Amino acid sequence: MRPFFPLLSSIAFLIILVLFLRSLPYPPVIYNATDSLPHGFYLVRPGRVYHKGQLVVCEVPEHVRALVVSRQWLKEDGLFIKTIVGIPGDTARVRKGQFVVNDTDFGPVHKYDSQGGKLPAYVYDACSVNGYILAAPGKERSFDSRYFGPVRPELILGEAIPLVLF
Questions:
Q1: Are 135 and 83 in contact (CB under 8 A)?
Q2: Which of 38, 52, 54, 107 is the most exposed place for a label (fewest CB within 10 A)?
């Protein structure tokens, strides 16, 4: 029995670890395969207060989930990793086809995706937002708040911290 103890202990530890990780309401580490950010593994660190410039993990808003899945941008249970570019109280609008938050231009708002599929049009009318505005700065083809609007705070699972990038 003694020669098998390390093996059995390792197997028991792995089983307990897997059960613990599956019990969490969010995955502690996620893999990004989209082109909005570097591919790789990101640690999800839960938080309550988020700020501009912070990279966060969030659930896909319900009103665009079917579109995201049908275009195969993410799986059904996929999560976004985006940068917060606007916080509650900031002003967002589309000006001359460009997405602008507090006078900072975050790129064009396209009518069609890179495959020719029609994109939703969220109407910003120089309004003060109630939620977080997410984007992928420097990536004009990112599917972000330009198309689905501000994200409710409860959809944000935590900060995304790069672990291993490819």
A1: yes
A2: 38
